[in-house]
Amino acid sequence: MDSLRILRPVHWVKNVFVFAALIFSRQLAEPWADALPAVGLALGAFACFCLASSAVYILNDILDRRTDMVHPERRHRPIAAGQVGIPAALAVGAGCAVLALVGSLLLSTGLAAIVLAYLVLMSFYSLGLKHVMILDCALIACGFCLRAVAGALVIDVVISPWLVVCTFALTLFLAFSKRRGEIAQLQEDSEAFRKTLGEYTPELLAHMLDVSSMLAVACFLLYAMDTRTRELFGTSNLVYTAPVVLYCIFRFSALTQKGLYSDPVKLILRDRPFQVGLVLWIVLCVGIIYL
Prior knowledge:
The relative contact order is 0.11. With 291 residues, the chain is an all-alpha fold. It has 13 helices and no strands. The chain folds into 2 domains: 132 residues, UbiA prenyltransferase (Tetracycline Repressor, domain 2), CATH 1.10.357.140; 132 residues. The protein is globular and about 55 Å long.
């Protein structure tokens, strides 16, 4: 059970960005004989990123096991709590990384290159770059962009640059939200837990949240009104989902800055109003794209 917990399966939800290209390229509108292989490839890419991200989580938990003891929730993680030894954790992490690379290579050499780039990038993040202010959040956002690009590459479709920039801005917003939530939750212990939290201030993070969230919304609207998007979907009606997007972003920001959640994943999985808004946006997008 502890060996499963160190994989952090709850955080696999972050890898849904792999499916963005599958949905927004209208692959699901193709005849079933053509759509099914694309779905299979996207699911394979999702599985590879689940393994790769788990390998990174394990490395990060090993390196942060002492500082995690300061955190009221993370101190219960198996590695920080001493329930899983370092050699065993390293073996599981290495196994996940190898399986991710082999699996992605079987699907596509391009996907394997992106998975390898993700592993290298996030390993550097864990080994020290997470202690560099702003760069720490930017690298997290780059990891999500790699997921989105991998999803397009594995099914051989072109992804809009606006979607890539939107993904970067949105996940940058999520990363800054996490830092703001950590400061609100840990308060005077925040710097002992994470060095960069001593450099961030609530006011600075509030400004960064405003800029990154508005950039994400602007890029999404530009994508919706782009000529290629209108030609692909036959409409630019995606712009009318903007109120729902703004509601989700504003609620996410409000709950984070109140210190109710320090982990974006927990907010997404637990806050019912946010979930309703997110599901409504997905339904509207699917309806506009496919109907």
